[in-house]
Amino acid sequence: MRTFIGTDFNKESKEKIAAIQTTVREQAERGRFKYIGNFHLTIKFLGEIEDKRSVDIAKALRGIASRHERFSLQVDRLGCFDGRDSIHALWLGFSGELAKLHGLYMDIEDSMHGIGLKREIKPYTPHITIAQDLKLKLPFEALQERISLEGIKPIEIREIALIKSEEKAGKRIYTPVSAFPLK
Predict the structure, then answer these.
(1) What angle do CA 22, 15, 13 make, to 5 degrees?
(2) Distance from the CA of 31 to the CA of which of 80, 111, 135, 161 falls in 20 to 30 A?
(3) Tens-digit pLDDT profile for residues 75-134
(4) Angle 28-31-36 (CA atoms, 0-180°, nearest 5)?
(5) Helix (H, G, I), strand (E, B) or coil at 62
(6) ∠ CA(84), CA(40), CA(116), 5° rounding?
(7) Rounded to an integer, what distance in angstroms lies between the CA atom of residue 81 and that of residue 129?
């Protein structure tokens, strides 16, 4: 199964993010827009794993969650990863208790490596992807000026989860396999 370790958000936060996405959609010639139920923060992408491996991952996540406190993040910027002729991913970035997030990330990296999974090579850029393969009608900087991030309350990070990613009826669906509350 295709998996990642991440965390979900509350409904109010997702609705605010969806409102930002609507503004982006109005300024786009084309793009693939994330479904509101799929807004999340990926902590570590695992890729394809065998079902039996999820037991070891869950055991490691349980231990990790017991060592880390809950924390909050504030959506504070609109960013992107460029593609060839489009924006590969349009995302929302964070401020707030980033040291706690990075500590959690490093613990997950070390633990997953300890059970035989590969370490991430790229630096960790925590974000919420809201669109992919995006072609805008205006320059990215102009879009940034049009997007208001006011009114988005801090997002409480309360748990970590092993999440399965699958396609059903032409739609990407994320389903928690196991979730563990932070202390």
Answers:
(1) 125
(2) 161
(3) 999 999 988 789 999 999 999 999 999 999 999 999 999 999 999 999 999 999 999 999
(4) 100
(5) helix
(6) 85
(7) 10
